[in-house]
Each structure stands twice: as C-alpha cells, then as structure tokens.
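Hi R.,

Here's the chain you asked about this morning:
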Amino acid sequence: MIKRVKGRKLSRGQGARRALVRALISALVSEGKIITTYAKAKVVSGYIDKLVNLAKRSSVGRNRRIYGLLGNDRKTLDGLKKTIVPLFSDRRGGYTRIVNLPSRRGDAAPMARIEWVKEIAKSDEREVKGKRQKKITKVKKDKALK
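And the predicted structure, written out as tokens:
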C-alpha cells in the first residue's frame, strides 16, 4: 500500500515530466484529442481540469499562472481561452474523457485516447497544405568533377 504519494512519476525526472505534460496539453488544445498511454492520459486530465478552471475565472494573476504552467506557450493559452473556455462555461469540471484502446503492440502498454467531452470546432489552417509548391534546388557544378 502506497499512502500519501501525490502524483505520478511516469519513469522520468522532474524536468522531463514537466515537459511531457506541457507537450501533451498543447497537443490536446490544438488537436482536440490525442492517443497516449493510459497513465499519461490520467495525468494530463488532472492538469487540464485545473487549467480550464483557472482560465474560466480570468484575471491578470491567473493568466500569468496559466502562462507559467504552460511554459510560456502563447499559442496554447490563446487556444485555451478562445475555444475551450467558452465551450465549458456551464460545466464545473470533468472536461476530458479517457477512452481505453487496445494495448500497444511493441510493449503491451495500455493505451488510451483523451479527448474533450464536447466537440471542438477546428480551424481550417491545414488547407494550405494542398497548395504546396515544389522546392527547386540547383546543384552547383564543381570544377573538380569535370
């Protein structure tokens, strides 16, 4: 029995764990859902609840606290405040859902998909990908090769 142990280590040091959680949070805010291990999904779910609750009661101090927790990621903060907070204005908690998936084939790790409880409208930034231009690179002829 493990008592009075707060949080999960995720087999990482403090800095790597913090970076992992920040990356997963920014991916969830930008993409709307992510596939990860069950343990990582459980950790991210708790952080997301705290961040959304802070963002709902907006003030300068709370915005700075969120900004610091996100590692000074302005894009994630804007996405959180503009798209997610208005969506959950009537809800007090439980903003994410964790769906169990089959185990990973390589190491049999339990996998899960973490997603928002309500569907989030995505922006159409990816339409630019269809209009990709080919990059032309010219090879300089070296005199030594002649």
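The mean pLDDT is 88.

Let me know if you need anything else.
M.
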